[in-house]
Every structure is written in C-alpha cells, then in structure tokens.
Amino acid sequence: MSKELPLFIQTLSGNASDKKHFREIARNYGNFLKESWDKDCIWVWDSAFYSKDNLKAISENHKWITRVPETLSEAKELLKISDLKDMKQTSLDGYSLLSTEIVYGVKQRWIVVFSQKAYERESKTLKKSITKEKETIEKQVWHFSNDDFYCKEDALAALEEMAREWKYHKVKDFTIEESRKKKEGNVGRPKKNDVLQMMCNVTASFEEDGEKIKKVLFRKGKFILATNDDKMSDEEVLKTYKDQQSVERGFRFLKDPLFFAHSIFLKNESRIIALVMIMGLALMIYSIAQRKLREALLRENQAIPNQTGKPTKKPTMRRVFQVFEGITVLYEKETRVMIMNLNDMHRKILALFGNKYEKIYCA
Predict the structure, then answer these.
(1) pTM higher than 0.85, yes or no?
(2) Domain ranges, ordered by start, for the chain
(3) Average pLDDT for residues 339-353, to the nearest whole number?
(4) Contact 323, 264 (CB under 8 A)
C-alpha cells in the first residue's frame, strides 16, 4: 500500500500463518515494488509481523518500521524504565520519544513513544477498572466475613490469598473474632453436653494501593516502534508509522455494514477471490475519490462540514456518501428527467470534483 492508494490485495486461507505470509509478501511483492519504483520502499507493519525469523528474512533487502509486541520481556522492561522526563518532545502534538539501539534477530532501533492523548484515554479506562474492582471487592469482603476458620493462621492465609488477586487495592485493616460454635453437621441449638469448637471470623477493610496504581500509570500512553532504517529520524519514523492509519481506514470501509459484504456468503473459492478483487477495486476508487476531493479542497481553500458540523479539509468519502444519501433520480418511461433533492452542499462537492461530475448530476 502507498500512503492512501491500494496497490495489492490477496486472499488467504483462514489457516494461513500471518507471520509466515508476511515474509513471503516482503520477498516477492517487495522486489517488484523496488523494481517498479526504482527506489527504496519502507514496509510498515503491525506487531504481528515482529519476530526474529521475519526480521532476519527481510532486513538485508528491505527497510521496515513495525510496532514491538509488549509481550516481549525486553519490551516490558524498557517500558518499565522509560521516564517521560528523559523523552524528547516532537513537533507532533502530545508525542514524546526516546530511542535506543538493540539487537533482536538483527540490529535495529527501538523508539519508545509517549502519546498524551493515549495516556489520558488509558487513564480514564484505568479509573473505571479501579472502580469496578472496588465494587467487586466490597462484595467479596462481605462474603469473606461470614466464612468460618478453625484457627487465626488459616484465616490470615485465606485473607492474603484473596488480596493477592486484587490488582489495584490492598488490605487496609482487619480484625479476627473468635467464637464457639457447634461442629459442622450438627444443627439446632447447642445442647448441654454438645462439644463446641472454637472458630474464627475475619472482618477486613481495604483501600487503593497507590504504589501499584502508580506503576501501572507509569506505563500508560507508551508503545515501542522498531526500525532498521538508520537514515530516518525518530520523529520521521513515528510520522511514517502513523500514516498506516489511512490504510486501516480504507479496510474499515470494506468491513463497514454499508458495503454489505457481511451479508454475502460464498462457498466456492474462485467466487471468494472474485469478491475480494471487486472489494479491492472499490477501495481503490474510494481512495482516488477521497484524494481528489481533499486536493481540491486544499487548492481552493475550501472546507465541508464533518459529522459534528465542524469544517474540515480532510473529509472521508464515507462522510461524502452520507451527505449524498437521499438523492433521487426521476425517470419518465426510460428517460431521466431530473435529479431531485440536490442542495448547495451537494453542488459544492460536485464542483470540487469537476465538470464531468456536475454534468452527471446537474445536466
């Protein structure tokens, strides 16, 4: 994929390994791209690509940028020690960076990225998780206070085991009460000759564990990018990686219910491949139209309202499709008489696309 225009699409079996297929794509299609463009291209991958085998297989012939899985022990450790105070601010709003060179399969650069917006979003999610855990613990502690234990040691051990599962809270205080009760299985009021047994109950209170929460917050808003390109700056690597979002938006369009692909069931393999080709062509037309409109808006210094009514110079074609919903073509016998329900916004968009488009709707 280029920045916005789809160049390649391929169907795969559901049993195909993504990681193995990534290597094959880079080897085969990557060589074609280098020959066609006559210059180096940079592969941008998500974290599913990142493995020692993949990196070794393509690094000699290709430059790449990929997100590093946070499940790697090396990544966990780096995120744990990377402090925002040591990071360099960028021209991108709310982003700070810190890079280091490592060897993981091949020599590469790891860039720790801090996003203020991601931090705020993840912090809100964390607060919700803390509140949810608090509500769960309140019920848990109440039920626990009704449990009987044969000795204080058993009671304390059970309390510690329960608290060990808490992510954001800890035991604040507890009291142990002893009482004599009938042996298990005996019902009714104790009789004079009944043997009573000493039992323990624990009443506990809890509070937020500030240290745990602080450690979790320290890692929020961060992720790691890796690259073998030693010419690009850290900020250029981040910008190039963020451009992947335009590709993701394109595939989001294909998966949208408006495309109706979710309602089509095909059993024959050749028909599935044909449908994927049609979807790829549709995405290409979608991307060309979106680019054409954005270039026209920029050239004419114009804007159209987005979903919230605010002016934008970078509308999506999905938004334009929504604007054009309700257009009706009136026919008399087999002759088109007129286009109905056109308004000033429709005419503005058609004018930005050009005369051919205006003639289709306005002739």
Answers:
(1) no
(2) 40-242, 293-362
(3) 90
(4) no
